[in-house]
Amino acid sequence: MRRHTWSGAAAALLLLLGAATACSSDSDSKLGVCETSPNGVPITASAGSGPTSTNLSLHPEIATGYRTGMKPVHTKTFAVSTANPVATEAACKVLRDGGTAADALIVAQTVLGLVEPQASGIGGGAFLLYYDAAGKQIDAYDGRETAPAAATQDYLRWISDTDRTTPQPNARASGRSIGTPGVLRMLELAQHEHGKQTWRDLFAPAIALADQGFQISPRMAGQIADSATDLKRDENAAGYFLQPDGSPKPAGTTLTNPAMAKTLNAIASDGANAFYTGAIAADIIDAIGTTSGGRTPGLTTAADLAAYQPKKRTVLCAPYRTHEICGMPNPSSGGTTVEATLGILSNFDLASMKPADTTGDNDTARNGGKPTAQAVHLISEAERLAYADRDKYVADSDFIPMPGNSPQTLLNPDYLKQRAGLIDPNRSMGTAQPGDFGPVPLGDGVQQPEHGTSHISIVDQYGNAASMTTTVESAFGAFHLVDGFILNNQLTDFAADPLGKDGLPVANRLAPGKRPRSSMAPTLVFDRAPDGTRGQLTYVTGSPGGAVIIQFVVKTLVAMLDWGLNPQQAVSMVAFGAANSPTTNVGGEHPAINAANNGDQDPLVQQLRQLGHTVSVLPQSSGLSALTRDGTGWVGGADPRREGAVLGDPN
């Protein structure tokens, strides 16, 4: 069987082909397990898709088009999906060689930190749901970044109480935005509890890739170009991502990262402590505290890094029709908001609102058809109601308790039925009000912009599963490159103003040691027996996309659970939904949407506007993956809007 080696040429080939499917019934029969088929279509703008680059203040990362007509991937006993085919293949080989999902996560994350550094890496944080099949146990791992001990609630607003000027050059690009990274300690804990392979060996693929080189993918090149001005402010970032004249390095440029290889070698040898203490930690502190270029320094200390610990939370599960949906609890709002939205929708007959044109062997069907205006309206209204509660009540519950001291308060079926009664089938509510839980000393929250993320879905041959969403927050985080990796800007996920418009403190205000609220929504779905007990694991999903993650995950779950779409159709389907504002998103990158002239000629957009929606047809930048159990194994889908791929053992 032909094997790929970790040469720059091989990695480059995979990236430039934009590989999308492998090891499926549709793939080249000569391919072996975990090898990538070149029959995927490179990411390009589809007809009528609108611009391929969007303002980062409005959307997560740049939009890079749509791969039309992608087919689901069928595997037998294991499968992995990441946002980049090189990372997918590396993680898949771990599964092939007997590793667990926890082992494969280490490989996937470290490789993604090289080939997709704009979205995630060891300088960021993550949330992980892990299903242990032997014990039928779900563990929820919180690797969210934390604010330094010296931070105040105004840490991002002004330099100090005596110097009330904005951090320079802005809050994000200063040292003030950088939280203590959490993903490495979290992965170390999960692999210790669920792994089979040797920790050190799991870093070998990324180390080899960093040493031998890889080529910049088209999506990474687009993001470098979009972020070039900010990357110039950091000497290390400029030297790595930009040409000597300051222009962005283009797609196809070979990158080597000896600094990252050195960092990963240290972590492989000495564990996560090599990152949180010693020379690497000192370099992180120096980068956060730099005043070069007039930047305002952050106040993170060596003690902040050394003290960081991941947390195991109680997984948040709620029923939805014949299924049980399990997600992350606080400080992520993803689980709460996804499950609240579905709980509201459980009061409606969504099955009767299935998209048109979803059957047949053609690109329209493979792309998920086209949703009905009735379904988009109903789902968007449910999301408005769920986001209203999220914005007011959800934060780091170690600091701010939820109503009733439990996230289940927001998921109570009677409460959600009452919320469903607020939906007018003929008119959008525009902006929803949060639910009333009596006197609560919290101001009305304001939704914070959230940006760059990545998602990994894995099932292994032992029946274990991992759904992990990982992030450096905005594209390229704080634009600080240290020892080969990007540092996050996660603290900007806190409320910019600690007080709401009513003068009361908001739940998601900044505090020392606190974890900022997130929208990351890694999700596991189980069958549910008539007596309410949890049955077999049936779906694994999640997405990047900042605050819009919740909408991406909801539409995918509804597509699979209510409309019977296969996972590729579900993730390929038109991206739609709403936060708690009058704007409803309908992704104009999708071939089924006519985004010309702001969507004025598109029938779905026209119908939504008649219902009172303010419709945006800006391209959406989801990075969904979904794995579904069927009668013979697993079926997977990867988002056509990014470079992702699904791999596994042939069925």
Task: Give a description of the structure.
With 651 residues, the protein is an alpha+beta fold. The chain is built from 18 helices and 20 strands. The chain has helices spanning 8-17, 85-96, 101-115, 183-194, 204-212, 218-231, 235-241, 258-270, 273-276, 278-288, 302-307, 334-345, 363-366, 373-393, 413-420, 549-561, 567-572, 603-610; strands at residues 73-82, 125-132, 137-143, 214-215, 254-255, 311-313, 316-320, 323-327, 453-459, 465-471, 481-482, 485-486, 523-528, 534-542, 576-577, 583-586, 614-616, 625-629, 634-638, 645-650. A hairpin with a 2-residue loop joins β7 (316-320) and β8 (323-327). α3 (101-115) packs parallel to α5 (204-212), α5 runs antiparallel to α8 and α14 (373-393) packs across α18. It is globular and about 60 Å long.
Secondary structure: elements and pairs:
Elements lengths: L7 H10 L55 E10 L2 H12 L4 H15 L9 E8 L4 E7 L39 H12 L9 H9 L1 E2 L2 H14 L3 H7 L12 E2 L2 H13 L2 H4 L1 H11 L13 H6 L3 E3 L2 E5 L2 E5 L6 H12 L17 H4 L6 H21 L19 H8 L32 E7 L5 E7 L9 E2 L2 E2 L36 E6 L5 E9 L6 H13 L5 H6 L3 E2 L5 E4 L16 H8 L3 E3 L8 E5 L4 E5 L6 E6 L1
Parallel strand pairs: 16-17
Antiparallel strand pairs: 1-9, 1-19, 1-20, 2-3, 2-10, 3-6, 4-5, 7-8, 8-13, 9-10, 11-12, 13-14, 14-18, 15-16, 18-19
Helix pairs in contact: 2-3, 3-4, 3-5, 5-8, 12-14, 12-15, 12-16, 14-18
